[in-house]
Amino acid sequence: MDMNGGPKIVGFLCNWCSYAGADMAGTSRMSYPANIRIIRVPCSGRVDPLLVVKSFQQGADGVLVAGCHPGDCHYSEGNYYARRRFGLLRPLLDFVGVEQERLRLEWVSSTEGKKFSQVVSSFQEELERLGPRENRG
Amino acid sequence: MVDEIRSKAKELLTDGTVECVIGYERATDGVTARPLFAYTAEEIDRFIMDNTCVHNLARYLLDRKGKPTAVVVKPCDSRTINLLVQENQIERDKVFAIGVTCPGVVEAHWGEASDEAQPRCVTCSLEVPAVYDYLVTMPGERQTRTGFPDLERMETMSPEERREFWERQFERCIRCHACRQVCPGCYCPICFVDQLDPTWVGIRNAPPENQVWHLIRAFHLAGRCIECGECQRVCPVGIPLMLLNQKLAAEVEGMFDFRPGLDAETLPPFAVFKKEELEAER
Ligand code: SF4
Ligand code: SF4
Ligand code: SF4
After folding, report:
1. Å from A67 to nearest chain B CA?
2. Predicted structure pTM score
3. Confidence at residue A37, expressed as pLDDT on a 0 to 100 scale
4. Is the CB of B218 within 6 Å of ligand 2?
5. Of B115, B125, B34, which is closest to residue B75 (Cα–Cα)?
6. CB–CB contact B282 A104 (8 Å)
7. Does the distance separating the beta carbons of A85 and B159 come in below 8 Å?
8. Shared domain check, B181 and B97
9. What is the mean pLDDT of residues A56-73?
């Protein structure tokens, strides 16, 4: 992945809210770092921790999982399950030396283009502060 | 004490309660123990029970689904029964649990048994099985419980030091998957590590691939690992797998107030949620 030298971010965005939110950021010409590679998923609850761990193994510096706000999930409760899952995956990653700040779970609705661009920008700043991930891939 | 196990086992076979009793017998080295599936009274006479009886025999219940079976369980092993009933893998009324209170089992290798406690026993919190239909007492002074010093030491390390520590561990893994084969929670018909399309864990044996295996194996047991310590016992290269399991167990208990296998009713943490929770942990 050629990413202008910045931290590499993999973003798993739910189809119904966050992907639409990112789309909105794009169509309203809000700027956000180009270093994010977006993967559209049906629901934040679809994001298997395996996808996150695999992303890190393949060289990601940070992984963003974004879904609908609690209460707004298209499938009612997928995001609540995601919240439990990633709430537990973060300390496990930290335990093996992948700083838990490198995995973010955010709620972004389809009208929150601005929030999406802020989330990605602040995530990028955080990852720059942490520095590149040592990866012997 | 072993007489109690033997006579109960014979009674269960004779009155037709079960077809098979899973217990321990002396291995051919004359020192260590090995599992014995007894179908007759003569076989039952070979049963033993002492601090070399390390195996978690309840794991074999997965191979006897639907068949009435009695099994000898230590406190740690007993949690397997609750786990597997909770997960609809076995039927409680097909299992007769011969529970054994346990002062702790020792490190034993072919031809030699030491006085050293198994790591799982040092951190164990149960003295009596969580579930049993008949209880016998194993004599012996209970081994000292130390809490989790290794886990606490890990927490004082920097992320960089932890990364190096685990890299050194993971690079020794030969991916024999013995840790999975022995685990009562690892019964998937097709394990992610064996999938080729997509290939989640590359065939090559290298630290990054091994890390995917280890993190996901541990995560699949999060909220399910009953801390029998078998994975670490069978690892041929001595990777401290229980550190990963115990880290997750501590987090699960802290976040969700849940410990697996203590009963068969409570829903596990990933099957439920609360609307108001964890916003700080995102
Ligand atoms: S038993 Fe040990 S060497 Fe074998 S796969 Fe598990 S951790 Fe790796
Ligand atoms: S992960 Fe290890 S300690 Fe936990 S249940 Fe499986 S074999 Fe036992
Ligand atoms: S490691 Fe995961 S996928 Fe493999 S058998 Fe265990 S629980 Fe199933």
Report:
1. 12
2. 0.93
3. 94
4. no
5. B125
6. yes
7. no
8. no
9. 91
